[in-house]
Inverse folding.
């Protein structure tokens, strides 16, 4: 599932392509047709993201909410239009470009109140200027749940997925099964600050890179990562491979339905 930086990158792109212009909205697949008809010909005001949720704003009570889920994708291209390929849920057509949405978990038209309620259920997003990290800390500091599980709980922290979760814990040597209430405020502030920086880099370059400069292949002489996700990482999807820092085989287990990766030495229990 795309992590938060992907949605913020899409919001920035769609704002660049469509904001401030009248657009045509279609639903070639038909499942969004009634809502598309209400939006057709309106001005695309802006796009924004909160965690893994994308919002297209067309005015009061005219907000498209998209959650890509595991299989959703956007494709964008310059005019002229191409024939729809596959099951296109929503097509947005601007003056110079168009965008197709396929396979989302959610594509729905919401009111301002509905969006406010949805966002109210989400935790703070490290990529948003209005984020309040203390909201997340209030929940974490009282919880017996592991910090690894809490970081993936979108009600606690919005936008963090499996890659950022594993990598930020490794970067700070935090045992992933540490209960939230045993984490400590200082370590939480390090996690938050690091996520802000790492995820902003993800928006900028379009991939997740978490390895510090001194550990990159060109410095250490190791082979670069070969993976469809791209980017250099310490532990994610490296189960059984030697830790880049200490050589211990990277461990992996299932936690709340997702694979968790960590180094048993660098992230040893306190």
């Amino acid at each position: 599932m795309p992590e938060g930086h992907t949605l913020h990158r899409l919001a920035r792109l769609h704002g660049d392509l469509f904001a401030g212009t009248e657009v045509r909205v279609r639903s070639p697949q038909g499942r969004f047709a009634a809502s598309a008809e209400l939006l057709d010909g309106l001005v695309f005001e802006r796009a924004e993201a909160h965690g893994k949720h994308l919002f297209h704003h067309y005015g009061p009570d005219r907000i498209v909410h998209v959650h890509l889920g595991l299989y959703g994708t956007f494709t964008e291209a310059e005019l002229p239009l191409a024939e729809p390929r596959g099951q296109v849920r929503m097509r947005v057509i601007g003056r110079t470009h168009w965008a197709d949405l396929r396979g989302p978990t959610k594509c729905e038209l919401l009111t301002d109140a509905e969006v406010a309620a949805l966002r109210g259920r989400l935790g703070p997003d490290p990529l948003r200027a209005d984020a309040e990290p203390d909201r997340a800390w209030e929940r974490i500091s009282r919880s017996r749940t592991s910090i690894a599980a809490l970081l993936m709980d979108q009600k606690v922290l919005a936008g963090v997925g499996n890659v950022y979760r594993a990598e930020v814990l490794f970067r700070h040597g935090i045992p992933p099964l540490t209960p939230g209430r045993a984490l400590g405020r200082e370590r939480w502030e390090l996690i938050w600050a690091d996520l802000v920086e790492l995820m902003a880099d993800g928006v900028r370059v379009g991939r997740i890179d978490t390895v510090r400069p001194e550990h990159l292949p060109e410095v250490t002489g190791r082979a670069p990562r070969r993976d469809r996700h791209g980017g250099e990482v310490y532990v994610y999807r490296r189960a059984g491979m030697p830790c880049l820092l200490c050589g211990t085989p990277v461990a992996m287990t299932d936690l709340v339905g997702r694979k968790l990766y960590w180094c048993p030495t660098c992230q040893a229990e306190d």
Q: What stands out?
A: Residues 246 and 266 are 7 Å apart (CA to CA). The chain is about 30% helix and 20% strand. Residues 133-262 form a domain with the Helicase, Ruva Protein; domain 3 fold (CATH 1.10.8.50).
